[in-house]
Amino acid sequence: ETGGSQGLYEHIFRLANELHTKVVLGLKRLEKPVVAGINGVAAGAGFSLTLGCDIRVAARGARFLMAYANIGAPADGGSTYLLPRLVGASRAMEFYLASQPTSAQAALVMGLVSQVVADDQLHKHAMETAVRLAQGPTLAYGRVKALFESSWQNDIETQLDAETDAISQIALTNDFQEGIKAFTQKRQPWFQGN
Fold first, then answer.
1. Long-range contacts: 91-98, Cβ < 8 Å, 24+?
2. Are 44 and 66 in contact (CB under 8 A)?
3. CA–CA separation, 105 and 60 (whole Å)
4. What is this structure's pTM?
5. 111's torsion region: left (phi>0), alpha (psi -120 to 50) or beta?
6. Are the CB atoms for 35 and 126 separated by under 8 Å?
7. pLDDT band at residue 2, thresholds of 50, 70 and 90?
8. φ/ψ of residue 138, rounded to 5
9. 3 state SS for the chain
10. How far is CA 152 from CA 66, 67, 157, in A?
11. Closest CA to 101 of 64, 58, 51
């Protein structure tokens, strides 16, 4: 029995650790915005994965469910960190304790998703968003994503110092120079990611 319990512990530990270190941290550390197009039911680890994305677009028929309590498990996949920051501590706890599906419209109202689109428009809308972002100032996007992440542990002075450093570094890039030129010439900028 003891060997079986230890083996199960090690198996679950390995699975959870890989999800957390490779996937969740990978999403958060990626120097590009990540767009999630959510259709159907996002439950358990699938729900947690959507939280790791920077922009969440849901189909009108999408549903969100923590589901962990239904199997007698604590939440994982970064949801205990990410969900309270998105919807507040009380709502996050309610998500976990209630273990009931939440509609896309309710998710929009509480700030869990930024947009809700018709079911048949989800793929098109998510891809258009991703393409638009890929054509934008990707270096600046990466910096602001890192700044948003660091803001959770920084005081205001430290965060302002980080912003000063980031904008000073970005000022040296071709994208910034193109952005300034385009602004003064009243035209759309053509960013190249350098």
1. 95/64, 95/66, 96/66, 96/68, 96/69, 97/69
2. yes
3. 7
4. 0.85
5. left
6. yes
7. low
8. -60, -35
9. CHHHHHHHHHHHHHHHHHHHHHHHHHHHHCCCCCEEEECCEEECHHHHHHHCCCEEEEECCCEEECCCHHHCCCCCCCHHHHHHHHHCHHHHHHHHHHCCCEEHHHHHHCCCCCEEECHHHHHHHHHHHHHHHHCCCHHHHHHHHHHHHHCCCCCHHHHHHHHHHHHHHHCCCHHHHHHHHHHHCCCCCCCCCC
10. 23, 27, 13
11. 64
Which tokens belong to 185? 């010439």
Confidence of residue 3 (pLDDT cuts 50, 70, 90): low
